[in-house]
Amino acid sequence: MPTPLILSIAAQREGVPFGAIVEAIFLELSFEMLREAGIRLPKVIGPAISIVGALILGEAAVRAGLVSSAMVIVVAATAIASFASPVYSMAISVHLLRFPLLLLAGSLGLFGVIMGLSAMLIHMLSLRSFGVPYLEPVSPLIFSEWKDALVRAPLWMMNTRPRSTVKQEYIREDPKQMPRPPKKRPKGSRQRG
Question: CB under 8 Å, gap of 24 or more: what pairs does 111-117 form?
Fold first, then answer.
């Protein structure tokens, strides 16, 4: 990090009475309360109230010397990034996991973050949904089923069903359905039209 940036952040933190972890938890809880209030208000004014409330709350907290402006920027960026999740139910679990990871990071540093992420990965590896491993085909490593795990293969290449979900009819399609160039016609034949 550049020295002027470090000096600027240190100067901002100088007047703040709390540690960084207390600041982050305070701001995260404030943003969660504003988000919940915005959901429960009528649709016409809910988003406007939550945005105005976040601006006023952040500005007032910085002016009062309770939090540093750098921490407000970081928490606001994470709040905005949380809206990028396309699945709402997954976004809720990420909101809930943010607090334990924040506590682990504040108490144990980078080791705590790695430990928390490892615990989440181990938990996901132990889950099963309808008898199928949650991280299949990555967790029981089955290379033949990676046709649509990272990059989707053409439909004609995916002619078999996953082994973990199928008891019968392993073949999905006839292998003759692969697209091929048209056959050459003899010179004397006419085209129907």
Answer: none
Please state, in angstroms and rounded to a whole number, the distance separating the CA atoms of residues 139 and 164. Answer: 12
Report d(CA 2, CA 5) in Å as an integer. 5
Pair 155, 174: CB distance under 8 Å:
no
Task: Clarify whether residues 56 and 140 are in a common domain.
Answer: no
**What's the pTM?**
0.65
DSSP code, position 144? G
pLDDT value at position 178?
67
Task: State the DSSP H helix or E strand holding residue 64, giving kind and residue range, or none if neither.
Answer: helix 46-64
**Cα–Cα distance, 63 to 141 (Å, whole number):** 54
Max Cα distance, the chain (Å)? 93
For Cα atoms 35, 39, 41, give the angle at the middle one, nearest 5 degrees: 115
Three-state DSSP at 129 gives: strand
The answer to whether residues 24 and 76 touch, using CB atoms and an 8 Å cutoff, is: no
CB 46 within 8 A of CB 39: yes
Report d(CA 134, CA 46) in Å as an integer.
36
Q: What is the mean pLDDT of the chain?
A: 79
190 within domain boundaries = no
Return all residues near 4 (Cβ < 8 A) that are at least 6 apart. Answer: none
30 and 98 in a common domain: yes
